[in-house]
Design brief:
With 198 residues, the chain is an alpha+beta fold. The protein contains six helices and four strands, in the order E-H-E-E-E-H-H-H-H-H. Helix 1 (30-44) runs parallel beside helix 2 (102-121) and helix 5 (156-170) runs antiparallel to helix 6.
Length: 198
């Protein structure tokens, strides 16, 4: 496992706003958090040389964070892990920036990877894939007016203005954004155009 700096956040993953980051309840040292992440990744990743952890902490020429750098609060304490999963040989990325210190985000990733391994051990890993695919295929449950927050007398210009405002709010690259909500807004606008342009 190699560390790199600066942080390379996965495309499309929402970020946690700085004022929303919290202190974790993890009672673990930064070095133990790093070791736990390494152990979990060795069990899940197909090869150690393809595993990369990116962070904004300074990294030595040996590919390790400098002592003490993981426990200091920094402006962007996010951590992203890139690896090839051994069972499916898929390239994967996991990232966390919910906590104020980089080692806390390392710990959260180690726990998440441990949970993924537990799901694999139960033989239910295919269910997760199906659950995500099924959720993405779910059509919007409401009409376009409800999705865009418009009254029955809304015009196409009203729909376009509302969609523009909501897309900015729910963009998946923004903190608190949602790919599903963004998709629903776009689909609602298309429905509005189809209905109002006739």
């Amino acid at each position: 496992m190699n560390f790199r700096s600066p942080l390379e956040w996965p495309t499309g993953w929402p970020r946690t706003a700085a004022d929303k980051r919290v202190e974790s309840r993890y009672r673990i040292s930064p070095s133990a958090a790093t070791e736990d992440l390494e152990q979990e990744l060795r069990k899940l990743a197909s090869t150690d040389c393809l595993t990369v952890v990116t962070t904004n902490c300074p990294v030595s020429t040996r590919g390790r964070p400098y002592a003490g750098s993981l426990e200091d609060p920094i402006e962007d304490p996010g951590v992203a892990v890139y690896f090839v999963e051994s069972e499916s040989e898929r390239r994967m990325a996991l990232a966390c920036d919910a906590f104020r210190r980089p080692y806390e985000n390392l710990r959260a990733l180690a726990l998440a990877i441990g949970a993924m391994r537990q799901i694999q051990r139960t033989g239910a890993s295919g269910l997760i894939e199906k659950a995500y695919a099924g959720f993405e295929a779910l059509p919007p449950s409401e009409g376009w007016r409800a999705v865009l927050g418009l009254a029955a007398c809304a015009t196409l210009a009203d729909a376009e203005q509302a969609a523009r405002r909501l897309r900015q709010k729910h963009h998946p690259d923004k903190a608190g954004g949602s790919g599903v909500a963004f998709r629903d807004i776009n689909e609602a606008l298309e429905q509005a155009r189809g209905e109002l342009q006739r």
